[in-house]
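Hey,
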Amino acid sequence: MKKYAQLIRLRLQKILGVMTGTLDWSHQQIHLSVHSHSDLSRLSSCTKEPETVAWLESRITPTSVFYDIGANVGAYSLVAASLGGKDSRVFSFEPSYSTFLTLNENIFLNTFEGIITPVHIAVSSASGFLHMGFSSRESGAAKHNVSETLGGSLRVPAMSLDLMREELKMPEPTLIKLDVDGGEWEVLQGAIETLRLKNLISVLIEVDLTAPHGTEIEPLMNSLGFTTEATYPRSKGKSTTLFNYIFVKNK
């Protein structure tokens, strides 16, 4: 019934010329543009990953700097901006062309343009151009990867986080969320110096244990001074290979 009511509201808003839905977060109303079935599913992001929301709620402060790597349409970036307020900073990294457009729309919809900076670059281990294969070309889709075989591919700009932070003079992060559907190891290889920064207190990483180097991510983070605080199985808690890992910097 809840989903049916949500669909009715979407239709009404489309008549008025704006097709939006409301994120399932009780703290504050956040609006998301809806262009596709994938976008519609993003309205349930808080139910999908309650541990991510709880992690943000417990750690975001008015001085936080949050890097959201693999932001998609920005559900968690928007939650972080709402929690941190006008003096916090959020950097939302999303390389998909259709999803990036919706991410920008969502920033404007919620008047967070002074807090959230959208970054249309693939974060990787090195700088250059990558072939990104798309599982779907619709906004909000996921499971894209560095490939020329997934539903057509585009060359997209890529840069390591360490170099990007230096060249763009980005403030040091206090929190990082990393979810790039199996490419997390490559991102981490280009972020070693960032991970060593003293201001960084916690990192949340989606870890696919079947991905290349997937089983090496936890030992790497531990070697860089992070303790594994918790792991949460994905797919509604049923997965045995896909987890959200929360790492906390040792004091």
